[in-house]
Amino acid sequence: MIEAGVLVDLTEDPEGVPIYWHLPINRNTIALPDSRPLWDVIWENRHKDLGFAHSHPGSGTPGPSHEDMTTFAAIEAALGKRLVWWIVSSDSYIDLGWAGPHKLSYRVGPCMFQPSWVERLRVESEYQIK
Amino acid sequence: MIGEHEARVNVTFSGTNGDLPDPVSFDATDGDIKQWVTEAVRTGGIPGIAADPNASLQDFVVDRFEATEARPHRLLQLRPKTPFGV
Predict the structure, then answer these.
(1) A30 interfacial to chain B (CB closer than 8 Å)
(2) What tens digit of pLDDT does each residue of B16-43 get?
């Protein structure tokens, strides 16, 4: 397994349309390292309603790490707007959004349906299917 | 005029982008740069960025760029960090 990410445009489709697959050469099993190119793409698309999904190793319901949440907060502070944040495992996923009141008060959303691009994110993450 | 050992400082915050009015040493530490910019954002000291008394740049990073033909001075740019991981 190797972590992967995707930037999603939610402007016109609530399921979202992938606009940038984040597959840096230095990604690994437990992390997507800091990336200037990722920030550049987010900034270029700042006028759209955006979300970002990334994969975590393993199966079951994933949860955000402290690193994840501080990155969510930093990007939102720079953009001056909130995003939707998804985390995907081999067989589950969650969506998160800021609920307040504190800087890192992110809560799991309703997850009404699984966006179609989640399966491709799993493929790009090279989960080992048993 | 920006000296050979100085740099312009640019920051992206709250959907806007602006420069510190005065250049700083290119060799200043990331911690110092973030502190100076944080104080400037909080007090409205960066043209183009509205004052935010609660601004925090703790999770921002400093990218350092050498001068180019198009930009004849060095540049320090603050942007949010972007790593994810377990």
Answers:
(1) yes
(2) 999 999 999 999 999 999 999 999 999 9
